[in-house]
Amino acid sequence: MATIRDVAALASVSIASVSRYLNTPEKVRQATAERIRAAMKACGYRFNYAAKVLSTQRTKTLGLVIPTITNTVFADSTRGLQDEATRRGYQVLLANADYDPAAEGRLIRHLLERQVDALVMTVSDPLAIMARETPALDIPSVFLYSTLADAPVSSVGIDNEKGGYDATAHLLDLGHERLAMLAGSFAASDRSRHRYEGYRRCLRQRGLDHDPSLVVQAPFGLEHCREAVSRLMNRAAPPTAIFASNDLMAIGAMGALRAFGLTVPQDVSVVGFDDVTFASYVTPRLTTIRQPVYEMGRLAAKVALDALEGGDAGPRHLILEHELVVRESTAPIRRMSAGFGERGFPVP
Q1: pTM for the structure as a whole
Q2: Other Cβ atoms within 10 Å of 323 Cβ, number
Q3: pLDDT value, residue 166
Q4: Residue at 183 is within a domain
Q5: Which helix H or strand E contains 297, and what residues bound it?
Q6: DSSP letters spanning 153-206
Q7: How many domains does the chain have?
Q8: What pLDDT score does 53 carry?
Q9: What is the CATH number of the domain that holds 175?
Q10: Residues 338 and 201 in one domain
Q11: Positive/negative CA dihedral, 148, 67, 251, 223
């Protein structure tokens, strides 16, 4: 079996250079790295990963917990995280919680048992996770998408409350006053709850009463939108605009409105949140709040790995800028001669 000494001799480099390439490849010049890779292939050298873990007490893995693999917003942030991790010689171990708060703790403990070096999490309730799992979180950890000022665990995200405020303000500026919110379950997402708080604050500042019946919580997913929209539109005074707490729910709402014979935005305006790639490809193109999700993922990995490699200097809280992207799914209110509620939309 080939050894590191054989690789060094074949590549005409020192044993220390080969060791540096195996442990911190980003610190090796490209020409040297190419010679070492060619030598490893030529002599059939296979890196003993278990031996490295024993000697360094590092697995060179970054654990990641996300709520779902079905929403592309998390795919984009994962790509940013993985690009940063790969650049620094780390692999990513991914766990999908399916928006299940009970599963999150189990997955975190599972990743810790796998001895990940650092952990990035998007969870339903970061405060609850900190209370339950803090004794186990003795490695650098970062909450992604949630921002918690002064919390003992680092976080990277946007101001979700302000994003909800800006989405609501846009619809109010267009003249909509019966403004509903299609919210992802607050129990499954603190981001949805914070966006709702922004919706409430904007209504309050504009002097409008909050009508709880205009807020419908639903499980995340397109398949749950039809029933939620039916509940909103069967009111005696249905809304003229809907703010959805993510783009998938907004797109599901537009589909449900079309099925009920309504046109977006002529009859009902719709705003989403995230700006996933296909938000600009649906018809009408979706007005939404854009999050810089790739950069959020990259920075989450950077914060975690900087703490790991440089010694934990305490929590960091990075709040990135969001942007209202106005497209074709919103328009000024059109006064209707008859209420929508008279049409009797079917409840599935």
Answers
A1: 0.82
A2: 13
A3: 98
A4: yes
A5: helix 293-310
A6: SEEEEE-HHHHHHHHHHHHHHTT--SEEEEEE-TTT-HHHHHHHHHHHHHHHHT
A7: 3
A8: 46
A9: 3.40.50.2300
A10: yes
A11: negative
d(CA 77, CA 256): 28
Residues of the chain predicted below pLDDT 50: 50-51, 53-56, 336-339, 341-343, 347-348
Q: Which residues span the domain enclosing 23? A: 4-47
65 three-class SS:
strand
pLDDT at 5 (0 to 100)? 87
The per-residue pLDDT for 4 is 86
pLDDT digits (tens, 9 = 90+) for 75-114: 999 999 999 999 999 999 999 999 999 899 999 999 998 9
Q: Is residue 309 classed as helix, strand or coil in its secondary structure? A: helix
Cα angle value 259/260/263 (rounded, 5°)? 85
Q: Are residues 176 and 267 in the same domain?
A: yes
Measured on CA atoms in the order 207, 237, 264, 188, is the torsion positive or negative? positive
Report pLDDT for 46.
73
Rounded to whole angstroms, the Cα distance separating 9 from 15 reads 8
On whether the CB atoms of residues 61 and 111 are closer than 8 A, the answer is: no
pLDDT value at residue 341: 46
* Interatomic CA distance for residues 54 and 251, integer angstroms: 50
187 and 334 assigned to the same domain: yes
Same domain? 98 vs 42: no
Residue 131 neighbours by CB distance under 10 Å: 9
- Classify 70 as helix, strand or coil: coil
Report d(CA 297, CA 29) in Å as an integer.
27
In sign, the C-alpha dihedral spanning 284, 285, 290, 291 is positive
What is the reported pLDDT for 336?
46
Integer Cα distance of 316 and 154 in angstroms: 5
Shared-domain flag, residues 215 and 334 = yes
What is the CB neighbour count within 10 angstroms for residue 113?
9
Kind of pairing, strands 91-96 and 61-66?
A: parallel
Same-domain pairing of 225 and 257: yes
User: Tens digit of pLDDT for each residue in 18-57?
Assistant: 888 877 787 888 999 899 989 888 888 776 554 454 444 5
What pLDDT is stored for residue 116 in this prediction?
A: 95
Amino acid at 122: T
